Structures are given as C-alpha cells and as structure tokens.
Amino acid sequence: MITANQLRAARALLNIDQRQTADMADLSVPTIQRMEASDGVIRANVDSLMKLVSALEGAGIELINPGVPSSSGGRGVRLREHVANPKTRNVRQPKQSSARAMERTR
Prior knowledge:
Layout (H helix, E strand, L loop, with lengths): L3 H11 L3 H8 L3 H9 L8 H13 L2 E4 L11 E4 L18 H8 L1
Antiparallel strand pairs: 1-2
Helix pairs in contact: 2-3, 2-4
C-alpha cells in the first residue's frame, strides 16, 4: 500500500514532476493526479498501483509501511543509500522552444 503523501514525498526525493512519474510508471498524468489527490491510502486498480510501486522502487525509492522497523515508526519513504543516480529512464525531457533551440545553435 502507498499513500498520497508517500507518492508526493517519493517524487520530491527523485526530483521529478507528475508527468515524469506518469511516464516512468506507464500511467497517465490524470491517474497520477488522482492518486496524489487521494485522502490517505491511494485507491486505484491493482495494475496501476503495481506499476507505480514498481517504477518507484526501480528508481531507488523504498516505501516504509507501518510496523516496519524504522527509527520513529509510521509510514514514510526513503531513497536507498546505494542509489547514486536514481533510474528515471523513460522520462521525457521537456521540449525546448524553437527560440531556445536557435540560441543554442549559434
């Protein structure tokens, strides 16, 4: 299980936005928005939740659920220590405007 707060915290740790999260998990941006707007535990179909959790874990996020050993208890997220550069492949980079592209070629 993952909460909306955990999802937002995971995105913050990875320094990615909702679009990048959606691309990484092969979900739509509105799906990610609905998940983050949830109150408490995210309610979604099992396939979408599995894609999301798998993508976050692949990027180096560890979800901490209640009852799991941690220094102060409760839910949380953390970036695994051995992940120097989180995998956020399949993430589309923002397109540059034509004016910026022209400036870079000069």
